[in-house]
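Example: Glycosyl hydrolase.
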Amino acid sequence: MGTIGPVLPTTGALRPLGLDQVRLTGGFWGERQQRNAKATIPHAHHWLEQTGWLGNFHLAATDDLAPHRRRGREFSDSEVYKLAEAMAWEIARGGNAPLDELSTVVAAAQEPGGYLNTMFGRPGQAPRYSDLTWGHELYCYGHLIQAGVARLRGGVRDALTNAAVRAADHVCVEFGPSGRQALCGHPEIEMALVELYRATGTARYLDQARLFVDRRGQATLPDIELGRAYFQDDIPIRERGVFAGHAVRALYLACGAVDVAVETGDDKLLAAVVRQWEATVAARTYLTGGMGSRHEGEAFGDDYELPNDRAYIETCAAVASVMLSWRLLLATGEARFADLAERTLFNVVAASTSLDGRAFFYANPLQQRSAGEALDRSRPWPRASSSERAPWRDVSCCPTNVARTIASLGGYVATADGGGIQLHQYAGGTVTSGDTALTVATAYPWNGTVRIRVDRTADAPWSLSLRVPAWAGEAMLVTPEGAKRVGPGYAVVSRAWCAGDQVRLKLPVAPRWTDADPRIDAVRGCVAVERGPLVYCAESVDHDPAVALDAVNVDRSAPLSERPLPALGRDVVALDLPAPTTSAAGNGWPYGSSSTAEAEPGNLTLVPYHLWANRGPATMRVWLPVAPSTPDRR
Ligand SMILES: [Zn+2]
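Written out as structure tokens, the predicted fold is:
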């Protein structure tokens, strides 16, 4: 069987190892993968039935889908497809899920000619492709095709893979060179078509993807109130300097563009996306790796416009960013892409889901000013509006997106090339590539030590490359030849290996203070605390109700002491530090000459940001104001 993974380029610097080759057996990600299988996937399945979004397919198949009977938003079909994709990966990695049932329901709703969407084209509904701006028909196909590819990669041809291929063929006819010269308002189908090309070898899928990438930016879509930048139709991606507009759309388009560039040898297109990634990471990305600073248009903001309380940081944008970084890593072999993927996985993707796997954030701000009320978990909630994770939302793109990502996470960990094996993310498990088998043992990110044991190997020498994250500054590498210091990038151990050989990488996960570029006005005068790849935050539930988190000050020379916090999980580390509070006097006007507030001694507890809001409604902040320095009395 071939490699089983979400992104399998035919060429590039690195060849991904699949989730059949990288097994996560426990620890931080292994436990989350098990929770995803046991809790999140069945939870999403339940809600798709409960809300009628799955029922739409039943009704479509029986010609009973009068408009008043259809449930959900115009893109609700895609949630069924993303759940199908999650189930396909779960089955491919050896688990169980009722995918056959779902696939049969989906396939039965497909029309002759391959068209498939429960929102359009039936008596009483708007005609097919009559609202490409907002209708999401091609976006939905993209998710159907990705689900089909996941199934094909697992070695199965069934009703789902057949439906995906028929939909793709339909799109190539309908939107090809002699078809409609049109675009979907939401990119997504581009990367799906390239992956279907990779999975089947059918070149017209790649041609169609390239056509869609090149067609965008030509003002094909209408000039809406938010401007054509909202759906990246203002400037061709080849000419753009930085990601802009709706964050998920921009990042999905960039994924498709990288895929097209890699498969067609279009180095200029690849370089254009790398340039935009650099500009976006330099000035439009949060400490957590989150992207998208504006609620308006769910969009990237201007450079350095990174508010904490109003941060949008949609979970889907984080998933999309990880997908993009992985593609750029495979294309270039550069560690910086794996660095951002790690930051985003630990601090946004992990934060998006509750500890029980059944509630989800849509937005992931870095400050919560009001605790709000406990959410009733028996009903869906409006999006992006509470301090607690919701079980489901009217717009519920994020839970299924996280489910498919976590189910396929083994496919984002390691690669191989002609010289050996590269480990980009550290998670307990096993890695196999050809004649070589490794065991990775680690309690990362709580502990910085990663042990790699060679279980099986060929006689010829090969190289083991271990990523040292930029945040580490320096790490200690212990090999059979001895110990040495290594810097950020890839630490490479080249030798003739024997079964039983061990390598140990020690990453310095002691807590550290982090500053921000002063141009990020929202956090000027503040510091954050990180520990290894984890961003920390202060949460009100750890403090006396009298301590207002907006009144704390920290002294960065203060000691940060570690202690276990079993209430949030085994191995979880909390941090304590002295932090005086200054409660400003409320005079009915929050401005004036210098504050006369008195500082009172106090202590602050910091917890990993990804674990906040698991102990009831809470206020929270990541960036902490630095105490004003003592006045200079000279
Ligand atoms: Zn989403």
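The two ends are 76 Å apart (CA to CA).
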